[in-house]
Each structure stands twice: as C-alpha cells, then as structure tokens.
Design brief:
mainly alpha, two-stranded antiparallel ribbon, 2 strands, 76% helix, 4% strand
Length: 254
C-alpha cells in the first residue's frame, strides 16, 4: 500500500468499515456458507496454523483475552449463559466428550491450580457460603426432597453392601485365628453367629476401648494378623473367663 493509499484509508477508515458492515449484512448467509465450505475443505491446515500461531503468541493472547474478559465481564457472562441455554444438550455432550478425552490432563491441571491457589479457593468458598447461607440451605432441602426415595434406596444398598463386606472380613479373620478353619479352636463349634476373637492373654475389653476408630476385625486385618489371638465360641469364652476369674459380679460393681 502506497503512502497516498494509507493516508486515504486513514482519512476514510470509518466509511470503509461502514461499507464492509453493510456489504456483510446483505450477503451474510452467502458469506457464512462460503466460509463454512472453506473451513470444511481446509480444516486440518487451519487448525495446524491456528495452533502454531497460538503457541508463538501464547502469552500475548492470554493477556489480551484476560484483559478483554475483565473489561467486558458481565457482557461475556450474559453471552455464555444465553449460548448455554440455547445449546444446553449439545454443550453437555461436547463437555462430556472433551472431559473423557482429556481426563488425566484436566485432573492434573485442577490439582496444580488448587495447590497454587489453595488459600484463595478456601477463602472464596467460605465467603460464598456466608453470603448465600439461606440459598444453599434451600437448595439442599429441595434436592433432598426431590431425591428422597432415590437416596433411601441408595442408603439401603450401601448398608447391605457394608454388612456383607463386614461379614466376609469377619469370616476371613476368624478362619485365620481358627488355624485355617472357621471353628472354635477349643470345641470345634462352627456357627458363625457364636464365634468371636479372644485375647489369649486377656485384656480384650481395654484393647477394644483403646481403638480410636473402625472395627476390631479391620484392625486385625490392617495389622497383618498379629499373634496373641484365637477363635473361640461364646461358651468357651465364658468358661475361660470363669477359670481366670474375669467375670464381673454385678453386686461387686454396685
């Protein structure tokens, strides 16, 4: 462009912009169709060129995008909300597909961001909860009532699963301390309902009370089955307590 052309363009810049807008509005559909066809035919080249350009100008582009967003924050939020409301199902599908395709990357970025902004995130969350206390409470209540039957069913399934897991763990521990058999080591009784773990050297009550959390069978499993325990039925437990004078007389307690 010559010096004269540059001067003429600068002097009539607004007029040229107006003419371009009018021309675009008159041929909008035709222009969009042409651009769409061109993009479909040259998609890989365009994406590769865009990626190279972004990598070469990443810092500038991010700074510009951040500055533009801060200057037009409410306008951009309204645009995003409007677009999401018009393309809700499509957006959900695209977001889900993107998340599945970049799961590890998103998880890593989220963890890194949380570690570098931990205090800010906590402070923002605390402030939001304080300012929206009633709203949060109302949402929780509405969600609870809307999913009451579903939550009850889920809790029943969880409790049943938990009960079965504990039963399997109990069988495993009792079998280990029953010398490889699910029986009382003294009399051979095998009814699971009457079997329990006995502290060979006594002190079982105090030991269980000192366990800060969890189930006694869990503790034995986590400790890799330490020595000093055996599987006994309740009858043999009481016989042993009586022999060792470990039974408590209610009159003596009073």
């Amino acid at each position: 462009m010559t010096t004269y052309a540059k001067q003429y363009y600068q002097a009539h810049k607004g007029e040229f912009a107006t003419k371009r807008k009018v021309h675009y509005q008159l041929r909008k559909e035709e222009e969009l169709a042409t651009m769409k066809i061109y993009y479909q035919n040259h998609r890989d080249d365009i994406l590769a060129h865009t990626k190279l350009y972004y990598q070469a100008n990443k810092g500038d582009r991010q700074s510009y995008a951040r500055k533009y967003y801060l200057d037009h924050k409410e306008e951009e939020r309204m645009k995003r909300r409007l677009y999401y409301s018009l393309h809700k199902n499509e957006s959900k599908i695209n977001n889900r597909q993107y998340h599945l395709a970049h799961k590890e990357e998103i998880s890593t970025q989220g963890k890194q961001y949380y570690q570098t902004h931990k205090e800010d995130i906590k402070e923002k969350g605390k402030l939001y909860r304080q300012n929206h206390k009633e709203e949060i409470r109302a949402k929780k209540k509405a969600y609870y009532l809307a999913h009451l039957a579903e939550n009850r069913q889920r809790n029943l399934i969880y409790r049943e699963s938990r009960r079965l897991d504990l039963k399997q763990l109990k069988i495993k521990v009792l079998t280990h301390y029953g010398n490889g058999n699910l029986v009382c080591v003294k009399c051979g009784y095998s009814d699971l309902r009457a079997l329990s773990i006995d502290h060979i050297n006594g002190g079982g009550t105090e030991h269980r009370q000192n366990l800060h959390r969890g189930n006694f069978y869990h503790w034995l499993d986590e400790q890799n089955y330490p020595n000093g325990y055996q599987t006994l039925c309740m009858n043999c437990q009481f016989v042993k307590r009586s022999f060792n004078n470990e039974l408590i007389n209610p009159r003596e307690v009073k």
